[in-house]
Amino acid sequence: MAIIFDMDGTMVDNMMTHHRGWQKTLAAYGLQLTMDDVMATCHGKNVEIIERLFPGQYSLAERERISFEKESGYREIFLSELKLLPGLAELLETAKAANIPMGIGTAAPSANVDFVLDHLNIRHYFQAVIHAEDVEKGKPDPEVFFKVADKLGVAYSNCLVFEDSPTGARTALNAGMKAIILTTTHPAAEFEGIASVLHCLPDYTGVDILKELTIFRS
């Protein structure tokens, strides 16, 4: 058994900061999106998002530059708010004490992963960390979760995923994994009918991860 965490919106409540960052950056390049539009379209790897919104307009190098602009602004804004979701610190300690392998599979770029793991001093909990630069295809392609599971040495069907978005839940489904959803960004209703989803939680407060894994095994 293993646990795989998405990062943004799942470990830290930062998605609205990301969405505002996208809205500001895209407006600077002439694309005005409502917040609902941003939430619906800005998911996956940044270079894929930019290509999706500006098909054929920018080279890979230009898309990487736009991504860097957006992410640098996000980190500057979010630093003062950076903290784990309630209850997650306790869950990580419990899982580590029980020798449960843990990994992170995120669409975030490596600089954002380092920003979270190093500022919060939590890197030691994770035996596998896979980010945007480690995969060819972004979510909902399951490559990111497959790579985490492979690095942990755990069968895909024995991985329990924590996610916060319908795209992430579908990524778990495509990987043959089950998911528990954090409703930090999307309401529980948006996950209805996605077969990978076990249940939804507002945060990790009071979560008994050993009990969750026992239920998952059954």
What features would you describe in this structure?
This protein is an alpha/beta fold and 218 residues long. The protein folds into 2 domains: 147 residues, Rossmann fold; 66 residues, Putative phosphatase, domain 2 (DNA polymerase, domain 1, Orthogonal Bundle). Helices cover 44% and strands 12% of the residues. It has a 6-stranded parallel beta sheet, covered by helices on one side. Helix 6 links the parallel strand 2 and strand 3. The longest helix is centred in the N-terminal third of the chain and has 19 residues. The radius of gyration is 17 Å and the shape is globular. The two termini are 12 Å apart. 40% of the residues are buried.
Beta content: 5-15%
Task: Tell me the distance between the termini.
Answer: 12 Å
The CATH architecture designation of the largest domain is 3-Layer(aba) Sandwich
- SS class: alpha/beta
The biggest sheet amounts to:
6 strands, parallel
CATH classification, class level of the largest domain: Alpha Beta
The helix-strand sequence is EHHHHHEHEHEHEEH
Low-confidence stretches: none
What is the overall number of helices?
9
Overall geometric form: globular
Multimerization state: single chain
If you compute it from the alpha carbons, what radius of gyration comes out, rounded to the nearest whole angstrom? 17 Å
Short synopsis of the structure:
The protein has 2 domains: 147 residues, Rossmann fold; 66 residues, Putative phosphatase, domain 2 (DNA polymerase, domain 1). It has 9 helices and 6 strands; from the N terminus they run βαααααβαβαβαββα.
